[in-house]
Amino acid sequence: MSRYAKGPFAVDWEDRYDFAELRRQRVAKAQAALAESEADGMLVWKDENVRYLTALRAQLIAGKTTSLNGAILVPGEDPILLGSGGEIDKARMGMSWIAEAHAVPIMEQRELVDGFVKNILTPILANRGLTSGKLAVDQANISFIHSLQAHLPDLELVDGDTVMQKARWLKTDLEVAIIEEACAIGDSVTQRALDEAKAGRRELEIAGDAMQTLFYLGGEMAHVTTPFVASGEHMSPPHRLATDKIVRNSDLVFIDIGAMWNGYFSDIGRTTIVGKPSKDQKKIYTAVYEGLMAGIDKMRPGNTNQDCADAIINKVGDYGLADHLFSLFIGHGIGMGANEPPYIGETLPGSTVYEFQPNQVFAVEPLVWVPNVRGGGGVRIEDMVLITDGAPHLLSRVEYEEKLML
Q: CA–CA separation, 278 vs 3, rounded Å?
């Protein structure tokens, strides 16, 4: 497998990305995960799960995730698309791999939800002998559950999100290649923001420039709905969005926007400095950088997520800053989900320890913030990492800020 981004265009002179094969591989993995589960069939609503099964690139309406489109998977069959509005016309005209598609309402109004269950979902399941047994569902609102109980009382709902997480846990080589391309775009988006991070500009202007690059290069969306550009004291504590704050001399500026390409995300973060850094800023940056490098070095088969987290925390602790780590996990899985299991450095109840496996992909993102530092005392550096049979492979390539190093 070549480990570089070949380019986002379709060309006749080089093998690039076989999207038909990608779709086949994903459905096969989902079918295998379903077969290993307790479920007789599966219904998904989460954007990333619908896209994983059907390759639907949908119009996404703010605040309506899990309410717009769905997909049904039963053993031995191609996925069935449940699409809102014009998605069905699009599927019928341009998605030849979708053999069956049904129009559905936005899954919010109780009466419409009930009509969907009674008149659309029940016949689909009845035709496949699934009016009883176990149906795996990833997410659902209460009105949907009540309607299922009323119209399909012999059907038991079970956890479908874990089934899909299992299917998506390890990436295929083809998925990794596409993530490489997403990282090439994400690197470019990050570099544009770094180049535009100057005194006198507003955080929102920098974010706008970066988003222009994202769309110019064929990216679909940012890793976060609210592109993250934070300057100066906005990084201590981190505001995690872009505002009208004016960047000033001595400000640290953090960029976290990333990119999606063909359904797969990159999540890349860098911190820079406007002007000359203070000793405190250099200390914080160096602690984060060395912590990140120590953690990445542990990302090999045979080591665990805990080994990685401990290496980061211990290195940051060498600078007396362990208590200043941001109170969130230090790393997360990534793929069709912008942020997905498994996690690194999660401390909340239910956190798990697992060994790294080849073809897992992570975004590793330690963040240290110290209050009352002029120009800001918050630094995050984030890299995309592929687990291989040997040494970890860095998917992101944006340079680090040498003038912030001790």
A: 38
Q: Does residue 156 share a domain with residue 174?
A: no
Same domain, 141 and 199: no
Q: Are 232 and 374 in contact (CB under 8 A)?
A: no
With a pLDDT cut of 70, the percent of the chain lying above it is 100
Cα radius of gyration (the chain): 23
Q: Which helix (H) or strand (E) holds 43?
A: strand 41-44
User: How many domains does the chain fold into?
Assistant: 2
- CATH number of the domain where residue 56 is located: 3.40.350.10
- In whole angstroms, give the CA distance from residue 311 to residue 297: 9
Q: Is residue 368 part of a domain?
A: yes
Helical (H) or strand (E) element with 208: helix 203-216
Q: 158 with 202, same domain?
A: no
Residue 123 pLDDT exceeds 80: yes
237 and 138, same structural domain?
A: no
Distance CA 188, CA 183 (A): 8
Contacts (Cβ under 8 Å, ≥6 apart) of 165: 340, 341
- Let me know whether 394 and 267 are in one domain: yes
pLDDT given at position 346: 94
Per-residue pLDDT band at 1 (split at 50, 70, 90): low
Range of 353's domain? 170-404
The reply to whether 127 and 220 lie within a common domain is: no
Same domain, 315 and 397: yes
Q: What is this structure's pTM? A: 0.96
* pLDDT digit string, tens, across residues 247-302: 999 999 999 999 999 999 999 999 999 999 999 999 999 999 999 999 999 999 99
Q: Which of 299, 298, 227 is nearest to 269 (CA)?
A: 227
User: 279 and 338: one domain?
Assistant: yes
Whether the CA torsion 241, 247, 251, 254 is positive or negative: it is positive
Chain position carrying tokens 């995050």: 380
Q: How far apart are the first and last CA of the chain?
A: 37
